[in-house]
Design goal:
With about 300 residues, the chain is an all-alpha fold. It has helices at about 1-35, 40-65, 70-95, 110-120, 130-150, 165-195, 200-225, 230-255, 260-280, 290-305, and strands at about 100, 125-130, 255, 285.
Length: about 300
């Protein structure tokens, strides 16, 4: 009974976490437009914070509880889930080959590779300090500046009238984020105790998949609309911001140390994810067969993580 109730708590709090993030971003965006803030500032809420907010909230909550390795497990697990499930499994379910025209290997993929390389290098001593975290945030800021200065997209062509309700709704969304992320972390700690499983393993799987569901739904919808570039861009952008933003901010709260499990299994699988993604998409197409193979690799990851294979 305790296991069932804890599982329900995890599912409910994860659902509230995702919905609170959407609600906060929606109203914060409207508030920024109504106050005529620079488009760059308001755009950050959508492009950077919007893609990483659920992972950010749960990761920071775990660090504040002294569980820094859960941050690492959550971020690395999310990167793995985004690639293997967000592109692989979703392409199988949607029965679509993912064909993209935009040359992601010119800009976004190199930034993703650089982010992974920087993270791997910093984790060689199994920790990330605030000094290293500063470089993560600096690169994140430079990438954001590049995106907006390069594309010069007018994100907000409409005008939004100011209303105090926007502040209230944004606050409610933020409050929902704080509360739900607290319960997500608590439920994972309880499940780890009940199951006798590593907290990091559950964070890299249950939390990672739970917080990645919005990205997966965006990819699925994009595939149905034949908007393949959006599907790939959403996944790559989410991965880049998850690594740079969350590790960067988290390291300023406390030095992020990782466990042997993270170092020997989760981190190598994330590196493998990078190479597999490069191999299947270098021809600008991810076939359903390749998607099926990527899904298999995710289940192999689960088997290694929980000692099944």
């Amino acid at each position: 009974m305790e296991f069932f109730m804890t599982l329900v708590l995890f599912g409910g709090s994860t659902f509230l976490l995702v919905k609170s993030a959407d609600f906060f971003i929606e109203n914060a965006e409207k508030l920024g437009i109504s106050l005529k803030l620079p488009h760059f500032i308001t755009g950050i809420l959508i492009v950077a914070v919007g893609t990483s907010l659920p992972e950010f909230a749960t990761s920071i909550s775990s660090v504040l509880k002294g569980e820094a390795d859960m941050l690492a497990g959550n971020v690395l697990g999310t990167v793995i889930a985004n690639i293997f499930l967000g592109l692989g499994l979703v392409s199988v379910i949607a029965r679509q080959n993912i064909k993209f025209k935009h040359n992601i290997f010119q800009v976004h993929f190199p930034i993703f590779v650089f982010s992974v390389a920087l993270l791997t290098l910093c984790l060689m001593d199994k920790q990330i300090t605030s000094t290293e975290g500063f470089f993560f945030l600096a690169i994140c800021g430079a990438y954001l500046w590049f995106l907006f200065s390069r594309d010069k997209v007018e994100f907000f062509p409409h005008h939004e009238r100011f209303s105090w309700k926007l502040i209230l709704f944004a606050f409610i969304g933020l409050l929902g984020l704080v509360i739900s992320s607290e319960f997500v972390v608590r439920s994972i700690l309880s499940l780890a105790t009940i199951l006798g499983a590593a907290k990091t393993a559950l964070s890299a799987t249950l939390v990672a998949v739970g917080t990645s569901l919005p990205e997966m739904m965006v990819v699925f919808a994009a595939l149905k609309r034949k908007n393949f570039d959006m599907a790939v861009g959403n996944i790559l952008g989410s991965n880049i911001f998850d690594i740079l933003l969350i590790f960067g901010v988290g390291s300023f709260i406390q030095t992020i140390t990782i466990s042997t499990l993270t170092y020997t299994i989760i981190l190598p699988f994330m590196l493998a994810t990078l190479f597999i993604y490069w191999a299947v998409s270098k021809d600008k197409e991810i076939t359903r067969q390749e998607g099926l193979a990527m899904t298999f690799f995710y289940f192999l990851f689960l088997g290694k993580l929980f000692g099944i294979v």
